[in-house]
Amino acid sequence: MLVGIPALKNFKVFPWERVVFWIAIVVFVILVLFAISFNVLYTAHYPPTDWRACCPMPCMYYPNCR
Questions:
Q1: What residue numbers bound the domain in which 46 lies?
Q2: How many structural domains comprise the chain?
Q3: Which end of the chain has fewer CB atoms at under 10 Å, N or C?
Q4: 3-53 pLDDT tens trace
Q5: Cβ partners under 8 Å of residue 59, min gap 6
Q6: pTM for this one?
Q7: Which residues contact 2 (CB under 8 A, 6 or more apart)?
């Protein structure tokens, strides 16, 4: 819904629609920035990487891999 507000074309624009447009843009940008910063900064919810299950190549570079 937040993306649909600026994407749809309205030929007769009321003043309150401009306010809703900018509020939707600001809320969308805030939510996207929050999602990106949460995934970058909060790494505790990621499990540790276990390279043994998929590909043995990284174990060549890390002696304590196995």
A1: 4-60
A2: 1
A3: N
A4: 666 667 777 888 998 898 899 889 999 999 999 999 888 877 777 776 666
A5: 51, 52, 65, 66
A6: 0.57
A7: 24, 27, 28, 31
